[in-house]
Structure formats: C-alpha cells, structure tokens
Design goal:
Distance between the termini: 44 Å
Low-confidence stretches: none
Number of domains: 2
CATH architecture of the largest domain: Alpha-Beta Horseshoe
Strand order of the largest sheet: 14-13-12-11-8-7-17
Bound molecules: iron/sulfur cluster
Helix content: 25-40%
Mean pLDDT: 96
Largest sheet: 7 strands, mixed
CATH superfamily of the largest domain: tm_1862 like domain
Radius of gyration: 23 Å
Shape: globular
Strand content: 15-25%
Length: 473
C-alpha cells in the first residue's frame, strides 16, 4: 500500500480507539488525556468506557490500534477480558496496554494478546507509537513502549500536558456522584500531579515512577475543571496519587478553583505523613470546599507500617484524625487489613479504632477485607520480611500469592470479602456491616469476647460526604 494511503487510513475516524475498564468510578482521565494528544497529532480517535457503557464490537471492528488503559489491578483484570473480545472482533488490530499495570505486567501481556505496553508518562509514547505504526510496517522501537521485539522501561520525561479532551466519553452523570446529606451530585476527576516522590513498598507507583512526580500546570488543571463544571460537575476529585507531594501547588490550585468556582467541593488523597506535616493547611482546604480527604492509614500496627515503609506510625494516625476533626474535614482512611504480619489482635484493634473514633461512615467496609497485593515488579519482592510468605507467581491474575502464617487470617479474609460484597449489593448500613465483620472475626479467630461492638450507631445518624464508588485498587 502507498504509505500516504496507509497514513490517511490511520487518520480516519475510529482507526484508533482508547478503552477504559475501570478508573475508580470516574470518567476516565487516562483516556481523556491521550485523546487530546492524539487529536492534536491529527488522529480522530474514539473512546469506549466499559465501566459506563456496553462493549461495542462496531467501534472496534475497523480499529487499527486499540489502547487499553490499565492504571490499577482491577482495570487490568477487566482489561484482559476486553482484549480477548477485541481479538475476536478484530484479530489484526494492534493492542496496547498502557498505564501502571500495563508496564508491570508487560511480560505476561506481550505473550498473551498484547502487542505493546507503556507505563509512566504514557501520552507521548502512545502518540509516537500510533504515528510510527501509521507510517511503517517495520518493528518499531519507540522509547517508553515495550513490544515483543524491543524492551523498554517507563517513560519518565516531563511532557507538555494538554487539557484532557473528554469528547466521546460517557457524560459524568454516568459516573460516581458525591453524596451529601442524602443528595447526589455529579463528580469529575482531575490531576494536579502525577507519580509520587515516596517509595512505600506495597504501592505500584514506585516500581514505575521510582520516586519521581510531575506537576500539572495550574492553568491546565483549571481548564479541565472548567470543562467538568460545564458538564454539570458539582464536586471534583483530585486523582493525584498524593495531592500533597507539592503542597504549595496543591494549595494554589485549590484556592484558584475556589475563587473561580466557589460552589464546587472537592476531595483529595494524601499520605498520613504529609497531612500531619501540613496540618495547618487543613482549615484552609476546608474553607476552599474540601469535603473529605482519603488517606492510606493501612494499619495501626507499627510492625506492619514498618514493613511497608509507610513513613508514619500508629500515634500519627490518632493525631491526624483529631486534627481533621478539629478542622471539620472528613477523613477517609484506606486500609490494608490483611498482611502476613497482621495478627488477630491487630484486626480487632482496627475495628475498635473505627468504632471508637466514630469513623464508621468514613471507612468503607470493603477496607476491612483488603489484602496486601503483590504485583509483578513490586518492591515488596525485595523485602526479606515478605519473601518468606510468597508461595508462587500467579501471572494470569497479575499477583504473587502469599500465605498468612496463621491460616485463620486467610479464612477470615475470604469470608470477610464475601460478607462485604454481599452487604454492598444490599446497600446495608455500614454500622451493621461492621458489627457483622466483628462477629465473624470473633468466631474465626476464636476471640468470643470481641464479638460485641464498642460503640452504637443510630440508623438515622448524619453521614459525612462520600462518593458513591467504594475504593478498589
Ligand atoms: S502509597 Fe501513596 S505515598 Fe506511598 S508511594 Fe504510593 S502514592 Fe506515594
């Protein structure tokens, strides 16, 4: 084929398709951002988000390139199922897995249906790969894009970010909403930074970003917020891995957003260590509309926190909850309730903490069933404390399996997971779910004295604001 004809075929509408499977219930930024880059480069990509719409074989049938966004484990599990459907519909198209989990699992993915894998600051390698494929049939060597012929690490150059282009994605009304005082408000997600300067051992970001983070220019963040507000967003999630990696930038962005859109509320994620270090900023964030903050408490055991290199200890957690209460900002701890070092007593300790600090509506019950995830490439694999518990690589499920030395803990994890999934389906009151988890734990761990909750919660209590999507990694 004449190269010009080939290039123009690739520039036809739908020749490039970007697919999202799961992005924590948000309209996917990891599709909106590369859509902008591809459109600027002259392509006319389509988008599909199977979290909010049906898989469309028609959209895929004529695609030459399909990029599947896999920023997290759940997205990758779903992404490989979608890739199989894409192959059935269109065996010849190039399939690229991009995002954190694409690169961490490139070995398996490139042997099982994927043609390339990109991680880190993925937009430029993605565009360069599409451009290269549209012009040549040679085996391409694009920095940042791993293929069967060319290996590559993550792309970690600072790129000139564009405003994400959300055209072609389902409207934000199809996604997670903020619930405040029983009223649902549309919510959108933006990024003010990417990557992370920390190296917590269990986190999938350090194996890709290795302690680097990139700031998104304030004007780009605000333009994106403006777009979302025009779509009807009443609440913004700052989806940065840690909003306070650059605290001055975070504060400027929040202040500027509040000045331009005073009715918007927002939430962000930040580590305990940062929130304590910048405790004095909490009232200011509150003033600018902060509805809640998610923070990775993970555990109250100093042994567990030490093995994960979290940078905080048990006392820091108590101090933070008190500071947040004082600033009247809701704090939503995320947990890793099951690790090889978590004892039965640690598990009850977490339940006591949630009840005694009245966090029952700020900790999603699923958090009490989260088990330490060890993906390929995880820095935990280098830890002698972890190694002894690893049993095997389960490549198909993108994890290393490990066993708890007390088999009752593994049994409790399984049954707690079933319990909370069932409770979520029935939209059970969180206080009831926590009471049932406690009973279950008392039974399995043979601590009958722990079966009774330490505090009572009225069914008609006032709930703090939250998003309708529980957090899944
Ligand atoms: S857990 Fe949070 S602070 Fe730690 S490396 Fe990951 S994103 Fe950074």
């Amino acid at each position: 084929m004449n190269p010009n004809d080939k290039a123009s075929e690739w520039r036809a509408p739908g020749a490039v398709v970007l697919v999202s499977c799961y992005e924590l219930g948000h309209q996917p930024l990891a599709v909106a951002s590369p859509l902008a880059f591809l459109r600027e480069a002259g392509f006319r990509p389509w988008a599909m988000d199977v979290a909010a719409e049906d898989f469309s074989p028609e959209k895929i049938a004529k695609a030459k390139f399909v990029g599947i966004s896999v920023p997290m484990h759940t997205a990758l599990r779903l992404g490989v199922e979608v890739a199989a459907k894409i192959r059935e519909t269109n065996p010849a198209c190039h399939i690229c897995f991009y995002g954190l989990y694409g690169l961490l699992n490139k070995g398996y993915l490139l042997e099982n249906g994927g043609d390339s894998a990109i991680g880190g600051e993925f937009e430029l390698p993605l565009v360069k790969l599409v451009q290269g494929l549209s012009q040549s049939s040679e085996k391409l060597d694009v920095p940042g894009a791993a293929t069967r012929e060319h290996t590559s690490g993550p792309y970690l150059e600072k790129i000139p970010l564009l405003k994400p282009d959300r055209e072609g994605l389902p409207a934000i009304q199809a996604y997670a909403h903020l619930v405040r005082d029983g009223v649902h408000y549309p919510a959108g997600a933006v990024e003010a930074s990417r990557g992370c300067k920390h190296l917590c051992l269990h986190c999938p970001i350090p194996p890709v970003y290795e302690g680097r983070f990139f700031v998104v220019p304030q004007d780009k963040v605000l333009e994106d917020i403006e777009d979302l507000a025009a779509q009807g967003a009443r609440h913004i999630t700052f989806a940065d891995p840690d909003f306070l990696n650059g605290p001055a930038h975070a504060l400027r962005v929040a202040r500027a957003m509040h000045e331009r859109f005073p009715a918007l509320t927002f939430d962000f994620t930040a580590k305990v260590e940062h929130l304590i270090k910048h405790e004095e900023l909490l009232p200011e964030f509150k003033e600018y509309g902060c509805a809640f903050i998610i923070t990775a408490v993970e555990s109250l055991s100093d042994l567990v926190l030490g093995h994960l290199v979290k940078g905080h200890n048990r006392e820091d957690v108590f101090r933070l909850v008190k500071a947040a209460r004082q600033a009247r900002v809701s704090i939503r701890p995320s947990l890793v309730a099951f690790t090889p070092w978590t004892s039965a007593q640690d598990y009850f300790d977490l339940l006591d903490f949630i009840e005694e600090y009245a966090l029952i509506d700020e900790v999603d019950p699923i958090q009490m069933a989260i088990r330490l995830l060890v993906p390929p490439g995880s820095h935990l694999l280098d830890s002698p404390h972890m190694k002894r518990y690893i049993t095997e690589l389960d490549a198909e499920n993108f994890i290393y399996r490990w066993e708890h030395p007390d088999e009752r803990m593994d049994k409790l994890h399984q049954e707690a997971l079933t319990l909370v999934e069932d409770a979520a389906t029935r939209q059970e009151d969180a206080a009831v779910t926590f009471a049932r988890i406690r009973e279950l734990a008392a039974d399995i761990l043979e601590h009958p004295g722990q079966a009774q909750p330490k505090a009572a919660f009225a069914p008609d209590r006032i709930r703090p604001p939250r998003l309708t999507e529980s957090w899944f990694c």
